[in-house]
Each structure stands twice: as C-alpha cells, then as structure tokens.
C-alpha cells in the first residue's frame, strides 16, 4: 500500500510504502493481516525502513491506533530495521492511524481493532482507587464490629417518701440518728434511689 505525496520541500516524489502480509491461524480459525514493514522513499530510492511490531488485526477488520510512531514516548511501534541505514535519522509519527489491507468493501474501513491495551494508565488508576476505597470500607466495618457499646441505661425509681401524721412511734420509725455525739441529725430511711446499668 503506497501513499504518494509528490514534492514536499526538498523531498522529491515522497512515498510512504506499507508492506502488508496475511496469514491463516488455526487457533482463531481465520485470516489475520499484519503491517510487516514501512518504507520511506524519495528521489526514487528507499531512504528509511522500519519494522512494525504489534500492528495486526483479523483480515475482515481494520486496525486503529491513536499513535503509530518510532518515538519511545508513543510506545515505538515502528523500529528501525538496521543500525547502519538512515532510519535512525527519521522520526515518524502517525496520529489517528487506521489501516486495512484486505477485504475492503465499498471504500470504507471495517470494524476497527484498537491498539489500546486492556490495562491502560486510566484503568490501572481506577483499579488502584477502587482497592483503596475497599480497604477503607473494610477497616471501617472492622472498627464497627469490635466497637464496645458506650450506651448507659439509667433506671431511676422514686420511693414513696412522705411524712405521715406526727406521732411518736411513727417519728421513731421514720427517723434514724446518724450520729449520737453533739447535734442530732436525722435522715429519712425511704428516699429516692437510682440503679445504673453498664
């Protein structure tokens, strides 16, 4: 698959050539295509060659990736084929890259197999945050289970303390001397009491 750009600045007849291969895999029971190599040509000669890695999809699908690049910050899916050629002098980056080599119908891309991995940084961050929240919840439940009750129940009962008619025998029953020396003090035998249950 060749993309011809013509003359761009000092580059005469710039062509980007994608070498695609197709293979049948018994495990998936279908054909898969892969981008085998990318070549940069200008002035009618090959100037740089990059081997493609991990760029493949089922033959009935297309392949899509946000960045296909030779730069490490974009995961370097394009690797210079040799240390001796001019490939290391080139930096190639395709943004919003989509390709389909076979089974093209009505000039439209088929359903795309995306290059995004299942464990992208956003997904990993979400999993870490979920784990932290689960640990906090487990700790809170643990503290609630082993928390001792601090409730105090008070039961206060008022006795029927009253003064009856002034009689000598009643007065002796109602009063009890606290101490016999000096001034006499008296205390009611029947008075209010409280029970505290902890």
From TrEMBL:
Residues 117-154 form the V-type proton ATPase subunit S1/VOA1 transmembrane domain. Gene3D superfamilies: 2.40.160.110. It is a single-pass membrane protein. GO terms for biological process: regulation of cellular pH. Keywords: Membrane, Transmembrane, Transmembrane helix. One of its GO terms (molecular function) is ATPase activator activity. It is found in: Membrane. Pfam families: Ac45-VOA1_TM, VAS1_LD. The chain crosses the membrane at residues 123-147. GO terms for cellular component: bounding membrane of organelle; cytoplasmic vesicle membrane; endomembrane system; proton-transporting V-type ATPase complex. Residues 1-102 form the V-type proton ATPase subunit S1 luminal domain. Its main location: membrane. InterPro entries: Ac45_acc_su, VAS1/VOA1_TM, VAS1_LD. Belongs to the vacuolar ATPase subunit S1 family. This is VAS1L protein. It comes from Oreotrochilus melanogaster.
